[in-house]
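Help! Submission page says 'invalid entity' but I think these are all valid:
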Amino acid sequence: MKQRTFSTTLALFLFFFNLGIFIISVTIFKDTISRAEERSLGEHYFITSALIKDFHAVESRGIAIEGSFSSLLQPYSYLSGDKKTGLAFFKNNQLVYSSQDTSMLQNNLLKSSKDGIRVSTVRKVEKKTYVIVSGKLPVPYDSYALVYIYDISEAISSWSNLKNMLFLAGFLLSVLLSFGLLIILNQIFKPLKQISQTSKNIAKGAYETRLPIYGHDELSEMARSFNHMAEEIQHQMAELIDTADKKQQFIDNFAHEIRTPLTAIYGYAEYMQKALLSEDDRLSALNYIMSESRRLQTISFQLLELANLQNNLITCEEQKISRLFEMVRQTLYSKLAEKNINIEFSSEIETIWGDACLLESLLINLIDNAIKACGKGGHIFVCGANEAGKKTISIRDNGKGMTPEVLSQIMEPFYRGEKSRNRSTGGAGLGLAICKQIALHHGAELSFTSFPCNGTTAKITFTT
Amino acid sequence: MTSILIVEDEVAINELVKRNLQLVGYHCTSVFDGKTAISEMQRQSYDLIVLDIMLPGLDGFEVIKHANETPTIFLTAKNNLPDRIKGFSMGADDYLTKPFEMLELLARVEAVLRRTQKNRNYFEVGDVKIDFNSHQVYLNGQLVECTPKEYELLEVLVNNRNIALSRERLLDLVWGYDFERDSRTIDVHIQKLRKKLGWEDVIKTIYKLGYRLEVLQ
């Protein structure tokens, strides 16, 4: 692109520039010639009229003209002392007088005079250029013809010098122009080069690369939108990486949840098969196998529930809040009593729209989490309310709370705040993922607010 | 006696590893989280640590920093490459992923101990003594002539004592995979060993399975 712009611009410039020089020199040339011709015509006229007077004078004195040509014409030859002009005089096409070396004129001048009119021609003879004006003298001397020769070689050569100068200057200017053009084009194309370099960098993975923005022209506008694009790409890449991380985490966690019980089941079975066992050993190994199988069963049930929730539509009915709370209380009674946790139910709203089983499971899951977060003697408040026309149920505990990082991920399947995924403090990490699905199916939103050591509030906001 | 520290937060698996290692005569201590593991290591020196990565409190990568040259085998559900590499780069001697097989765990423990422990020279039970360096077997102080295959079979049985080994597994371990399968070869060699060492009651035939070298701890 740069090359093409450069060569086209330069070619166009050179063409018009040289054309200009050419036209100027031609004009000057023509001007020179026509001035010389005019001057020659003037001189010729002057000499002719003077000569006629002379002829009259000579004739009146009774002297024949033929004999006195040289004495008559001689003075005119001195009109120009620089030998640039010459005169020739013919009688009936016979040269009778010539002020200069006539040999070179001879063949050129013979046919030069015609009837009555003065003819001016430009002739080039032996590297010299002449303007030749020839014309017959008026009657009664019309057998005579006067030829005026004007040498314009000097004018021509000075024109030729001027022309050469012009072309030389033109050439120098062209060289300067081509350099200037190159510099300007480089300047113009520099942003384009930068853009291509930057996009290469971005393609290579340096997503934080940006273009510098100068001024307010079209290029800076383009740079701005380019930077915007780069920002979007960077943002999306970060999101992709984040998703990939989450996926990896999901796989890791899933693997852990499945492998741990499998390892135990297989391991104890192998142990029972191969080792020499006492009755106690045998029983405890069997116990491990059974409890780990149950754990796998729980996980598979939960996964199935999650999958079912994602695929199936639920049947919604009007549910009485008081009945729902009573069911939940009954289910969790033993757990609450065991940890000596005080739970309070209160509600401003009478009914809620939804599936009884799922709503119960949702509340039980959330309260179960609250119980795990509370120590012995904790408090849990379950509260139904009407906020800005929307029905909400919130579960508030005064337990250990969560950090913002944990809070942001708790609804991912298999996520557990406890990195070691220890069995004694929690399950597979599917509870809240299931809660989220249940909430989604009820057109409700599940949100959490929590601070470490300050308790957690889970809130279900129904939009239906 | 070789002492091994087992750091694993899942009670079932911790117990399983412990029982397996005890079968072949290692002395085992179980701990269930990172902090206890570190204090236990400071309290007593161990010949080997079997370490889980996902632990409550401090994780396995933190624990191994305090291991001070004690040979360590990671035993974990994390089987992706970056974790394995991280494990090895932090000084682990081996890396075993769950679910694992009993014999594999024992073989790896055995291999790491053989690399790191130079003083394990012989095994003695009853009136039989086996010298692992010179590959010689003594009964009541008298040298017993054994063919190389008999000796190898004996060593496998001793290393996996109290564990039943199938004929196929024994073939794999002693003769290698490309040996033409004939389980009667095993029976013949077992008979010879029993006769030579007077181990008719020690090498037990396990019905429908194989053989087990039974040694009381």
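Support: the input was valid. A stray whitespace character was the problem, and the output above is from the cleaned input. The mean pLDDT of chain B is 86.
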